Request: fold
Amino acid sequence: MAILEIRNLRKVFGSVIANDEVNLSLEAGETHAILGENGAGKSTLIKMISGLYKPDAGQILLNGVEQHFANPRDAILAGIGVVHQHFMLIPALSVAENVVLGSEGSRFLFRKKDAIEKVLRISKELGLPLDPAIKVQDLPVGMQQRVEIVKALYRNARILILDEPTAVLTPQETEELFAVVRRLNQDQIPVIFISHKLDEVREIADRITVMRAGKSVNTMPVADATAKELAQLMVGREVVLETIKTPAQTGNVVLSVEGLSVRDDRKMTRVKNVSFDVRTGEIFGIAGVDGNGQTELVEAIVGLRKLEGGKILFLDKDITAESVSGRIHRGIGYVPQDRQRDGLVLPFTVADNLILRSVGNQPFSKSGWLQKKSTRASAEKLIKEFDIRPPLADAQAVSLSGGNQQKVILAREMSREPQLLIAVQPTRGLDVGAIEGIHRHLLSLCEQGKAVLLVSLELEEIMQLSDRIGVMHAGELVTVMDAKKATRETLGLAMTGERVEEGVAP
Amino acid sequence: MSVLGLVFSNPELYGSTLAMATPLALGALGGTFSERTGVVNIAMEGIMLVGAFFGVMAAASSHSAWVGLLAGVVAGGLISLALAWPAVRLQSDQVILGMAINLFAAGLTAFLLNTVYGFGGTPISTPQLPQLTIPILNNIPFLGAVLGQQNVVVYLMILLVIIGHFFLFHTNLGLRMRAVGEHPEAADTVGINVVRIRYFGVLIGGMMSGLAGVYLSIGMLNSFEVNMTDGRGYIALAAMIFGKWTPFGSLGAALLFGFATAVSFSLQNYGVSANLIGILPYALTIVALTGVIGRSKAPAADGLPYEPSK
Reply:
């Protein structure tokens, strides 16, 4: 009998059907992947299983008994442990406090020593070393994930749900996570593994359920599934998985960074003596685990952050002291990491968002007055060119899907014909179809002889698009290598701070 | 001995520092309890006024200062629910709510004072909370003059600060309160009732601010005057921030501000302008808020409404 069974689950928000006819069965000791694009309904399903949402119809059965979770506490008591994509940890509290929170196991007094002992015991059993007394905010992301897993097991989880667990991990940390998952399977604890990455699902899962548009489309053993078939099931049409990249015709240096050092808001040096060049016609990719100085580096180059030391040259001119708008006018385009916070003014229309950078210039403004007609005309042209949907210049940016929001930003930046485009995580959270489109636009820029600086946490993306790859670790540019010679292993090692000679296998 | 030497070596200065610090420390402690659960509380001024008025009213009509104390604390708790309900249930802006309560309380207490007691003010027969004399401590030189003989609320305050610290940092409920103030969603996913915890924090905080008001009206005096808190609620707010949202920190900051007030009183006798010295606590407050002396960090979810799962 299945440990967990989901029958025809349905959840509606207003007029949006988030989940409908979702079926799933989880056997003892298996790893069951749920694969689907963003917006396919994976998160809604998880929130129902973990008691955060109440289903509108359908059944959740544990060991054959129907469950009605009123709140997360019910689900925890029933033995369901969830590691959410955005960790549910409290940075200001210690590891031990985070683990036992809500189920402290004593009546009134909080016993710190007991909590620390319990955490040590579980982490030893699992083979996951952890320091229970350290504050969570001082831990790297991979360790924080361990805390989440220990936290679930402390609550006697009989089923573990991992929501996009590898998004923030290095390849090595991912391998460690997979080892933990296999150990849990051996202990007869089944794992639900939610992901949109085909490769890792094929590596870790026993069975795969594909979700599309709120429904479970198909369940199959992993051995029967090819990557192409899975992608097709996810998207509902055929997709080109590999973007075809022609070798770059590189030319002059566009951007030159020399000995750059940058501090963050807390006055910690986050970028240490970083130097590199970006040339016309190439994509220079920067890989690294989140939080190793990539954000600060980019902010310094676009002028949002003061330098502690070093120099930035753009087209042979020193722009170190130049303002943000000065740099834009010289020809730097910028696609920021958080498109909703920094990239768009969400309540504004698509047309207004498209002219944000040029609003003071002809033809969008004449002697201080906005020119609605030319704004609209330019917007309609860009909407067509970049295939923004729905094709309405008056639609509010907030009403667009993530992929289309990103197209608006890309359209705005590219329409200014920049000599250098800096794109940070340009496809984060987008579905396979939208990613394909964004990648094509970036490649077309190179073909036009422009330069692109691409920062991404997705190794696949970096390897697919870049001509040269730099890896950042703890604020240093550990290595710069030719993309043709780079492998997952060499890049992964560099991401942990090991200096690798170019092209030499570890 | 110089004038300053005389002033600063007089134990009475430190005794009155403690007396001045008491309402500030109680208000700051109340604010700490509220804000540690994530509800910004700038309503201490208003809650103190309400506590002060109802304290006098109950004491006068029952002829018992103890009944007055109880009534003031209960009234403080009740008025704080006017902050808690919209803040927790309706996700309203907590700063605006706090301001509204301050304005409402000022108007309400002035109106009730006139309606109930007329222009003569509160009855002169209103009983006062007793001064306590601590036997052995009282006979120790210097220290005895500072700590040996104070109003009962002063000792109550010291006790509450110690209990408050123990409660916040050494009990399960305290841990949960801090968790809710830092990351309510994380607390929710481990089954903590965020709404209930926030109500609790605001309510306890309101009762402490109510006690601060009681101290002003029937501890230091035995009457109520319009707007008698005179900005102490805002100084308490500063003390809470200066004290980094901890009970002992709040007490320390309150003592510093209380000391400034006490000094300004003492120096008046030596011909130093009272007005000039009167600005001292406020100047110190501004310095405290600019973060020159150690930067204090609020609970991460302080002031952020949280909508529980559905």
Remarks:
- Chain B has one domain: 3-134+142-290.
